[in-house]
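Table S2 (continued). Query chain:
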Amino acid sequence: MSTEPIWIIDHDLEDHDIMRDIWGELDIPNELVLLTSAEAAFDRLKEIQKAPFIIICEVNLRGKRNGFDLRRQLLETNSKKFKSVPFIFWSSHATEEQITEAFNLSAHGFFIKEGSFNDLKDTFLTIVGYWQKSRTPAKIEEAV
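Corresponding output:
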């Protein structure tokens, strides 16, 4: 099982609080990293040696870039570190166009943030459980 952190990128600080509460109830050894913008996520990805286990990103981020922009930016790099991370979109609501756009960007999933705490917890466990069992390429650049 991967021990890298799980990143959630969401501008809504109330959602951060809910995810912290959910995290406190779960037995997942990975660190939870909460970020508020695409810019912060991309900057942090550039700084770290090894990519996160999973990125879960809100579609409708505030700032210069939304979740789609971040995904596009990651796909445009030549870094294996950026391309090997399961990238999951989620949102409180979504249009068919947004879901299509996500999959055009090779998203690994698109989930709706459920209304209740227990439903959101179940969704999060589904995402993490799937990727714990799945295999992905190495999340670190090999020395050339």
